[in-house]
Amino acid sequence: PTPVLAVVGRPNVGKSTLVNRIIGRREAVVEDRPGVTRDRVYYDAHWAGRAFTVVDTGGWDPDARGMAEAIRAQAEVAVTLADAVLFVVDAMVGITDADEAVVRILRASGKPVVLAANKVDDQRTEAEAYGLWNLGLGEPFCVSALHGRGSGDMLDAILAAL
Ligand code: GDP
Ligand code: MG
């Protein structure tokens, strides 16, 4: 079986867009409004001659429970099934309470985590993303999933973590 990378983060941070970058195809569904990705969709990916499986997470029933609780539950499931986690934050928004809650779950899991600072479309946002070092998850890899910026270094770090 190939190693499994779970992509975790708040709704709308660009997880599915980044998954499409990683797999090199447009199969993960990107939505302008949060909350519509189905729970845990699996994709085959390759980088630098190695194969791995990417799991795009998301999806919850907004009527059934609150968003923060849903994000926590999603992260809990993701860490159990993954060999490594790609934690995606929105560099334009910065860190929210929901992000902090996910970080605690990721830390407790002991699984390797790669931090992606997404939506770094320009130089100014890259400067703001520097504050993400404070999460204690190591280097934030600045990427723009939309424009394809920076994903090579992030993928190298993912392979090292898997
Ligand atoms: P998900 O809910 O985390 O899976 O997020 P999606 O991949 O569905 O993206 C949510 C929205 O953010 C969409 O409108 C995307 O086009 C947008 N988005 C994703 N990546 C980027 C990026 O790198 N830069 C910008 N400006 N927008 C992005
Ligand atoms: Mg999605």
What are the secondary-structure elements, in order, as H or E? EHEEHEHEHEH
Measured by DSSP, the beta-strand proportion falls in 15-25%
How much helical structure, as a percent, in the residues? Answer: 25-40%
Under CATH, the homologous superfamily reads P-loop containing nucleotide triphosphate hydrolases
Alpha-beta classification: alpha/beta
Distance between the termini: 13 Å
- Principal-axes geometry comes out as globular
Q: What's the number of domains?
A: 1
Radius of gyration: 14 Å
Number of strands: 6
CATH topology grouping = Rossmann fold
Task: Trace the largest sheet across and list its strands.
Answer: 2-3-1-4-5-6
Explained architecture:
By secondary structure, the chain is an alpha/beta fold. The chain has one domain (4-161): 3-Layer(aba) Sandwich (Rossmann fold), CATH 3.40.50. Helix content is 34%, strand content 22%. The chain has five helices and six strands; from the N terminus they run E-H-E-E-H-E-H-E-H-E-H. The chain has a six-stranded mixed sheet, with helices on both faces. Helix 4 links the parallel strand 5 and strand 6 (140-142). Helix 2 runs parallel beside helix 3 (97-109). It is globular, with a radius of gyration of 14 Å. Magnesium ion binds at residues 15-16, 37, 56, 58. Magnesium ion (MG) binds at residues 15-16, 37, 56, 58. Residues 3-162 form the EngA-type G domain. This is GTPase Der. Belongs to the TRAFAC class TrmE-Era-EngA-EngB-Septin-like GTPase superfamily. EngA (Der) GTPase family.
